[in-house]
Amino acid sequence: MRILQLHSDFIEYKPIKKEIVMAEKAEPKAQRFEDIVVLFVAVEEGDNEGVAKNAIEEIRTNLDKLKAKRVLIYPYAHLSSNLAKPSDALNVIKALEKYAKDSGLEAYRTPFGWNKQFTIAIKGHPLAEQSRTFHPTEEAKEAKPEEEKVSEAIKAEEKLKSTWYVLQPNGKLIPVDEFDFSKHENLSKFARYEISKVRAVQQMPPHVTLMKRLEIADYEPASDPGNFRWYPKGRLIKSLLEQYVTEETIKYGAMEVETPIMYDFNHPSLADYLNRFPARQYVLKSEEKELFLRFAACFGQFLIMHDTQFSYRQLPLRIYELTRYSFRREKSGELAGFRRLRAFTMPDVHAFCADLQQAKTELATRFKLCMHVLEGIGFSKDDYELGVRFTKDFYAKNKSFILSLVKLHKKPVLVEMWEKQFFYFIFKYEPNFIDNQDKASALSTDQLDVENAKRYEITFTDAEGKKKYPLILHCSPSGAIERVVYALLEGAYKDQQKGKPPMLPLWLAPTQVRIIPISDQFEKAAEELAKQIEANSIRVDVDDRPLTMQKKVREAETEWVNYIVVVGKKEIDSGILPVRDRKSGKIRPMKLDELLKTIKQETENKPFKSLSLPKLLSNRPQFYG
Q: Among 100, 329, 109, 338, which Cα is nearest to 217's?
């Protein structure tokens, strides 16, 4: 059983629609509870009344500390992918309610089997958000079917002991509870999110609505949760990002390779590595083999390097793959649009270094690469906060190196210091985007790996002709491509909340220029103008639909088109185009050459792809809505 416990100022919910046949009777009207502890509960296979009793006993003790006596039991299947049968789940939920009342709590319960709409306000104290897992009795465990394979690293991560600090560019390392966050709101949100370790999602993130409305992507109901269908506009955006990150990584000096997406679970090196990486795997069987779907490009690249002969003269040696796809079987309750998903596209570049000094130099180079890539995509340093993690021993010996990265960032950073090494890496950094729900998501990363060269028997020849194990760096300059789209959409939503026009960077806009003829007699002229613009590698379309000009302009604005040009007799005769500039919100009189020059300057050094939809809007299907 998994329970997300939220000490709340209030929760208001309304049953919307039955999800299962055996749903309980309920009135479709709003219910509100004030000053209450909400228990979002997922009942898992094998759970029984004993689990419910144990859960209430522990929760009751915790509520005494909160001086709270009111609870709302809220069935919430999204916290687990290993759910009990509905009939069994309902029995356990009822047992929870019974034991809660028997223990002296004022207990309430939402109806079981319904899709519900809810609003919640969580209190601000450190214990307001807590996540718990309760296991069945020994008897139930014995009867339980085989569970998913979980790496030892995940188990270690749950027990991981660390200390949190804020490291300032001046070198001061301040315990997180002593740092003044008054001028660092996003860093404060980042710290709360990381320290709480609560990853479950209670509300739909704004980018999910936007990705659907803008016809970028949507969930694929015929697939596993966390897998998406990409519409033409979304595929264009995604492919441009893939191309840009790949080009910048190759400029950095990486050699591009391609490797399989599935591997033998029992391969000695792979099996050992799986237990050192904190991720859940998809497992499948083929003939007599048990295979897993990769969660990064590490396996394939390491196996290539195992068979490669190289010397210290070629170091640092860099290889790269854009994985389409990588797979991680994230918990269903943590899945949230593009922020956290199960199949994703990961740019993955490894560097093999002769020693720690070379590794630190390379880490600094790659840190600059990550900052450059994020800036090129359209993020400023105000859009993300830096997290740095390392062992206590690594910090003691490498303070000046760590501080050099913080100085490059030019802002205080969140630090997690581990008492000892838990994983295969001893140092990593991650720029994190903070979204509209105060959730943090890594946009890029790099790790200092001190184990896998030996595990995979990857060696190089040193200056004396001896075989040595290199240090390995694991970097994703942009993080998952899907997560980049998430951050761009969430950022646009933030702008909208501030009264700014939401938009994508011009180089990523599916339509960069839209031509709108005042009436159908100017459609040919509009098409001729579009041809001239298109010849300059600019994505342009023409709204030739039988709608009013005003409606066409409004729809272009709701599609976030960056430049809108209305064409009639006056514009054709004068050659002066009234260009609606989305960024400035103004209409700018421009000649065609001036418009072309402006767009070229805005998209300089970025990849280009042609329009992925029919140029005439009348020929386009509607993919969503």
A: 338
The region, left, alpha or beta by phi > 0 then psi within -120 to 50, assigned to residue 465 is left
Contact 136, 40 (CB under 8 A): no
Burial of 182 (0-12, 13-18, 19+ CB in 10 A): exposed
**The pTM is what?**
0.76
Q: Among 300, 254, 296, 260, which residue's Cα sits nearest to residue 278?
A: 296
Residue 40: burial class (beta carbons within 10 Å; 0-12, 13-18, 19+)? buried
- pLDDT above 90: percentage of residues in the chain: 71
CA distances from 614 to 41, 203, 216, 232 (A): 48, 36, 16, 10
- CA dist., res. 281 & res. 470, Å (int): 27
Token code pair at residue 610 = 């042609």
> What pLDDT shows up at residue 152?
59
* Cβ atoms of 261 and 294 closer than 8 Å: yes
Per-residue pLDDT reduced to its tens digit, 26-58 = 888 999 999 999 999 999 888 888 899 989 988
- Residue 54, Cβ density class (10 Å: 0-12 exposed, 13-18 middle, ≥19 buried): middle
Long-range contacts, 368-373 (Cβ 8 Å, 24+): 368/408, 369/248, 369/249, 369/252, 369/475, 369/477, 370/431, 370/444, 370/445, 370/446, 370/475, 370/477, 370/478, 371/408, 371/409, 371/431, 372/248, 373/244, 373/245, 373/248, 373/444, 373/477, 373/478
* Strand-pair category, 425-434 with 440-442: antiparallel
State how far Cα 277 lies from the chain centre.
18
Could you tell me the two tokens for 144? 């339980």
C-beta of residue 385 within 8 angstroms of C-beta of residue 392: no
Torsion of CA 392, 198, 210, 429, to 10 degrees: 0
* R_g of the chain computed on alpha carbons: 27
Residues 6+ apart with CB under 8 A from 570: none
Q: To which residue do tokens 């309980």 refer?
A: 24
Backbone CA torsion sign across 195, 197, 199, 201: negative
Contact 417, 395 (CB under 8 A): yes
- Check if the beta carbon of residue 441 is closer than 8 Å to that of residue 491: no
All residue ranges of the chain with pLDDT < 70 are 21, 137-160, 199-202, 271-279, 625
- Give the rounded distance of the alpha carbon of 6 from its chain centre: 23
Which of 28, 29, 20 is CA-nearest to residue 84? 20
8-27 burial, b for 16+ CB within 10 Å, e for fewer? beebebbbeebeeeebbebe
Per DSSP bridges, beta strands 471-476 and 460-461 are unpaired
Please name which of 416, 409, 422, 421 lies closest in space to residue 165, comparing C-alpha atoms. 416
Q: What percent of the chain has pLDDT over 70?
A: 94
Q: Which domains does the chain have, with CATH numbers?
A: 2-147 (3.50.80.10), 167-489 (3.30.930.10), 506-619 (3.40.50.800)
Residue 459's pLDDT is what?
97
